[in-house]
Design a protein that fits this description.
Layout lengths: L1 H17 L6 H11 L5 H10 L8
Helix pairs in contact: 1-2
Length: about 60
C-alpha cells in the first residue's frame, strides 16, 4: 500500500508541475495522511480552503 500511496502522490505532483504548481512537502504530507486514513479528507479540504487568499479580478 505504501508504494501505491507514493505513486499516487508522484502522479499528482507531476500533473501539478505541468501547471507550474508543484506540491510542497506539506502538500505531500497532507495527501499521504488522507490517502492512508490518518486524516479526514473533508476536514483537510475545509482547513485548506480557509487558508486560501482568493483574489478578485475585475
Amino acid at each position: 500500500m505504501a508504494n501505491d500511496v507514493e505513486n499516487i502522490i508522484e502522479n499528482i505532483d507531476f500533473s501539478m508541475k505541468m501547471e507550474n504548481m508543484a506540491l510542497t512537502e506539506q502538500d505531500k504530507s497532507r495527501l499521504r495522511n488522507c490517502l492512508t486514513g490518518k486524516e479526514d479528507v473533508d476536514k483537510v479540504l475545509q482547513e485548506t480552503l480557509k487558508n486560501i487568499h482568493w483574489s478578485k479580478h475585475d
